[in-house]
Every structure is written in C-alpha cells, then in structure tokens.
Amino acid sequence: MQGYIIDVKPVKDDDLIVTILCENELISSYRFYGARHSNINIGYKIDFELETTKANIPRLKDVMQLGFPWILNSQKMYAWQRFLKLFYNHLKDIEELDSFYFTNLEELVRKIDKQNVLRAIIESYLNILDFEGRLHIDFECLICEINIDFNLSLVRGFIPVHNSCIRAKRFDINKIKELFINKSAISLENEEIEKLWDIILLGL
User: For residue 71, how far is the Cα from the chain centroid?
Assistant: First the structure.
C-alpha cells in the first residue's frame, strides 16, 4: 500500500500512532519504536504493509519512504508538511475517502517540483474547495449577504467578505475572481500569495 503521512502522535515508549492518507481511505496504524525502523514524518509518502493485531488498530510494518525530487529543499518541504498536517483535522471523521484527495496530492507533488511551493499549494487548495462545493464564485459577503463589487477580504476557506464587515486583509477582487475561475495564481504578487497562505493555515 502507498499513502501520505498526515499525522503522527507519540504514545508510550516512543511508539507512534501514524495516520496515512491512501487512495480510498484514511488509515490509523501503530508504529513500534525500533532502531532499525526507517524514519517517518508528516508529509512523507510511504509504501507499507499492515499487520492485524489483537488491538483495534493495525501495526505499521515494512515501511519504505518514497522520495520526492525536492525532498531536500527545506523551504518546499516545510510548506508541504504544514499543508499536509491540515488534512488530518479536515478528513479525520470521513469513513470513505474519495480518491480525489490522493490524486490531488500526487499532482501537487509534481507541481511543487516545477513552481513556487506556495503558489502550487494555493492552486491545489482551490481544487479541494471546488471539489467539495465550497468555492464561492458568487462573491456574496458572508456577513451582510450583499454582493461584493470591491473592498474584498477573504476569511477561512477563502470565503469572500466585505473588508468593511470583517476588517481582514484586503484583496483585489478582479485578481481573486481570476484565481477562483482559472485556479491559477500566476497573476498574484508574492505579498498576495503570502496573505492567501496565512488564510489556508487557519484550516482547510
């Protein structure tokens, strides 16, 4: 099996509970501590096997890390790990996982190799919002429910609001409309990318 590690929780004696996002499911598994075990961390893609135990959680074994071309790039890896960590709270209560999430991460890995990591993540996140029906392309303010023609801010989930209603960071509405429709961050300045990244970090 293959999947992306989205959560690692320490338990007794340096053992771990590892949550893995696979193609069609989230797997929580038990990882026994041992010097011969390969290193694992949030954001790693791994090939692994599961062993059934008497407990209600399988044991993670035969783990092999599947590297990325950019895995030693600390800037890209740091942003990638922060993004992957958000998936745990977003998906942890879902029983059957659509393959979209795994496929979207596979595509994101390829995009990060060729473009700025934050721009790639923002575009990937827009695909998630669109897939889940949460991409608000009508630009109606969440607070006052009046259409936004200018004076745009975004809150968690990239939900549009009037800046005068919420006093959040302001965006150029034409650029955000283009971003939402084309799911491309090419026309955004670096400062705007940083502001969108801060919103993503609030939660998926």
Answer: 17
